[in-house]
Amino acid sequence: MPMPLRIAYPGAYYHVMTRGNNKLELFLDTADRFTYLNLLNIGISEFNIRVHAYALMTNHVHLCVETPLANISEGMYRLNLDYNRYFNSKYRRTGHLFESRFNSRLVQKDRYFLALVRYIHVNPVKAGMALKPENYFWSSHRAYLSGGDSVIENPAEAMAIFSDNPENARKLYVEFINQNISDKEWRLLDSKRNGLLGDRSFRLALSKR
């Protein structure tokens, strides 16, 4: 049975989640995580994809990405393929590292963008991997606090939603991150299915494309 086509258009925002095959761990040491981030950084350059948030977990990865060129499938295919080759070569294994191509949900930016960024940055805490988001090295939360990293070159777009003043924006961002997330919101964002994350107007606008 053929896989369904993904909805893609210039300027689309996605919540991307990719998981290890049979829940296999994707990162066995620090070098693996740095390699994945390096390949992600290469993909950003080659495919003109903007990453607004990321979290490398143990057997899966969360990304919030924007695609100015409507090329989410091409960019993620290349990233997963290159990391699969690296991992298999290093650990002398064969076969698929990832359980599928990847899961992606189109996101209505104005309504869900900040909620998605918070969901991704809080994920390691929810999973018991850190006590606070800032204690987890392998997410973009620290880049939001420091002004960027190798993947998140400049989080100013997201931070400007809070305030035009950088210091005030960081303060409001931290307050936002530390707010309790309702069970309803978490379930909504935690869905691993492909599809849409938006209201009725967003769905209607997409149906006209």
Sequence-ordered SSE layout with sheet pairings:
Elements lengths: L11 E8 L10 H18 L2 E7 L3 E8 L4 H20 L11 E5 L1 H18 L14 H6 L9 H4 L6 H12 L5 H8 L4 E3 L2 H8 L2
Parallel strand pairs: 4-5
Antiparallel strand pairs: 1-3, 1-4, 2-3
Helix pairs in contact: 1-2
What would you say about this model in short?
The protein has eight helices and five strands. It has helices spanning 30-47, 72-91, 109-126, 141-146, 156-159, 166-177, 183-190, 200-207, and strands at residues 12-19, 50-56, 60-67, 103-107, 195-197.
Alpha plus pi helix count? 8
Mean pLDDT value: 91
Low-confidence stretches: none
Outline type: globular
Main sheet properties: 5 strands, mixed
How many E-type strands?
5
Q: What's the gyration radius in Å? A: 17 Å
Tally of separate domains:
1
Relative strand content = 5-15%
User: Could you tell me how far the N terminus lies from the C terminus, measured between alpha carbons in angstroms?
Assistant: 25 Å
Named at the architecture level, the CATH assignment is 2-Layer Sandwich
What would you give as the CATH superfamily?
A: Transposase IS200-like
- Fraction in helix: 40-55%
CATH topology: Alpha-Beta Plaits
Structural class comes to alpha+beta
N-to-C SSE string, H for helix and E for strand: EHEEHEHHHHHEH
Can you list the strand order of the major beta sheet?
Answer: 2-3-1-4-5
CATH class: Alpha Beta
Description:
With 209 residues, the chain is α+β, with helices and mostly antiparallel strands. The chain has a single domain (12-187), classed as 2-Layer Sandwich (Alpha-Beta Plaits). It contains eight helices and five strands. The protein has helices spanning 30-47, 72-91, 109-126, 141-146, 156-159, 166-177, 183-190, 200-207; strands at residues 12-19, 50-56, 60-67, 103-107, 195-197. The protein has a five-stranded mixed β-sheet with strand order 2-3-1-4-5, with helices on both faces. Strand 2 and strand 3 (60-67) form a beta hairpin. Helix 1 packs antiparallel against helix 2. The protein is globular. The model has no long low-confidence stretch (mean pLDDT 91).
